[in-house]
Amino acid sequence: MTTTTATTSTPTPTATSATATTNSVVKSATQQLLTSLNSGSGIDTASLVTQLVQAQFAAKTAALAAKNSTLTTQISATSTLKNTITTFSTALGGLSSGGTLQTQPVSSSSAVSASAISGARVGNLTSSVSVTRLATAQSARSALIDDRAASNGTGSFTLTLGTGQYDADGVMTGVAAGSVAPVRIDITDGSLDGIASAINNARAGITASVIADQNGKAVLSLKGATGTTQAFSLQANDPAGGLAQFNVGPGASTTLTSTAGNAELTVDGITVQRSSNTVTDVVAGVKLQLNATTTAPVALSSSRPTTALTQAVTDFIDTYNQVYASVRDVTDAAKGDLKSDSAAKTLLTSLQGLTTKTLVSTTATGVPTTLAQIGVATNRDGTLTVNADTLNKMLAAYPDEVESMFAAKAGNALSLDSKINAIQIAASSSLYGLGASASRYTKAQTDLSVEQGKIDSQSDALNTRLTQQFSSMNSKVTAYKATQTFLDNQIKAWNKSDN
Fold it and tell me: CA–CA separation, 292 vs 433, rounded Å?
């Protein structure tokens, strides 16, 4: 269970640099104007106007750029932080519910498999199970049909589920209807495959399949669910039609290959019956899979995941420290990108208080209920470490409680997984968490775009005005220069005539 994060800060323009830029542009533009006038060459009006307009709005543009860069960094930081805590919560949730941290039942025989029900506490399991009979399902098959694609007629069947009555040879003598009403199954395609498809599409409690032999002939096979009350009869509504050959029940031409019956087992001296070979309600917290009848009692015991729990504590601390470092850095009062973000600071506070949160509900004296009490300590920098000796002692003395902290248990809303999940939900909230922060920063960026649009409009207007002014000035300078040239030539002519 690992997660890594990385945050970077982007250099942003400052007000000082914007002022320097403005002064530089104005100075350059002034110098160009003087040079142009003194040299008598034409003024580059387009370049001059561009520089003056940029100088006019440089400070505002730089300030908006700086704000936009900061907001971009903050949006990225909130997204990274939200993903980090979500990944942490998901990883811990998977570890908690995966079963590796939960005490598992152990069976002494393959005739009965045992596994822990998710979230249940198995504890010190000591039970014995004997299986007298497995649960069976009623099944039937038709006679061989030469052509599976040939039609056997159309019409309908009536399917009745209930308790079957059989004679000593296993022949059905009747079906006592159960609580489910009989179901009508319409047959429009009378081929074997069409009949099987119609029965399966009805989803009424039996399944049908077509089985072909090596000669290409085929039979229709029908099977119900396991359990005494899952016997069935299937009767064509036209006794003289072709579908009647697939009837199941008293006097039918199909052959029963098995009958419906309950599993019978004895658990700790108590004999019970169940309709399925998967039994979840006779041994607390344990799912039994009955695979075969037994000749001797099967012993059930439990195996505690001590090594897995120890490793889980270590893995949790390693991952927590990575997550904590990311949150701590991004909320650093001096240089953190989210140093003023309330949601990020709330997340940091929540993580800091995790070791003292109650993770187990008990009133017994001395029983550990927090991470701190099983040896998880907080370092001066806020990261966590574990005292291996304390953890081992607690695992030996209170295995159920330590297991309950890390493994998801039914009814334990205080587990570490639940606490981290609650922190993640709060941190990701779009009302008051990082989701809300991201929305706020995004809106602020939109507002900046509007401000930048206003500046662009003002810049365009100034550009137009200055272009007109300099164009007029340039015309006057040109006229002045023409007059100057005329006078200069006239004076030269006068001076030449005097000689």
Answer: 55
Taking every pair of Cα atoms in the chain, the longest distance, rounded to a whole number of angstroms, is 157
- pLDDT of the chain, 499 residues: tens digit per residue: 655 544 444 444 454 554 555 555 555 555 555 455 444 445 566 676 677 666 766 777 778 778 888 888 889 999 999 999 999 999 888 888 777 888 889 999 999 999 988 767 787 899 999 999 999 999 999 999 999 999 999 999 999 999 998 888 888 998 998 888 999 999 999 999 999 999 999 999 999 999 999 888 999 999 999 999 999 999 999 999 999 999 999 989 899 999 999 999 999 999 999 999 999 999 998 999 999 999 999 999 999 889 999 999 999 999 999 999 999 999 999 999 999 999 999 999 999 999 999 998 887 888 999 999 999 999 999 999 999 999 999 999 999 889 888 876 655 667 898 899 999 999 999 999 999 998 998 998 888 888 777 777 777 776 777 677 766 666 676 677 777 777 778 787 787 776 5
Sequence-separated (6 or more) residues with CB below 8 Å from residue 200: 207, 208
For the chain, helix, strand, coil in percent to 5 are: 45, 20, 30
Three-state secondary structure call for residue 456:
helix
Angle of the 342-352 helix axis to the 416-428 helix axis, nearest 10: 170
Which of 320, 324, 305 is closest to 386 using CA atoms?
320
Nearest to 135 by CA among 258, 297, 271: 258
Rounded to an integer, what distance in angstroms lies between the CA atom of residue 245 and that of residue 143? 8
**What is the token pair recorded at 423?**
């922190």
Give CA–CA dist 76/284, Å, rounded.
Answer: 49
DSSP category for residue 104: E
Cα–Cα distances in angstroms (integers) from residue 482 to residues 266, 334, 492, in the given order: 123, 65, 15
Q: List Cα–Cα distances, 424 to 80, 149, 439, in angstroms.
A: 13, 59, 18
Count of CB atoms within 10 A of residue 4's CB? Answer: 11
**Alpha-carbon span 410 to 62, nearest angstrom:** 58
**H/E/C letters for each residue in 367-406?**
CCCCCHHHCEEECCCCCEEECHHHHHHHHHHCHHHHHHHH
Backbone φ and ψ for 209, nearest 5 degrees, come out as: -145, 155
Alpha carbon 304 to its chain centroid, in Å, reads 30
- This prediction has a pTM of 0.66
12, 66 contact by CB (below 8 A): yes
User: What distance in Å separates the CA atoms of residue 186 and residue 200, rounded to the nearest whole number?
Assistant: 12
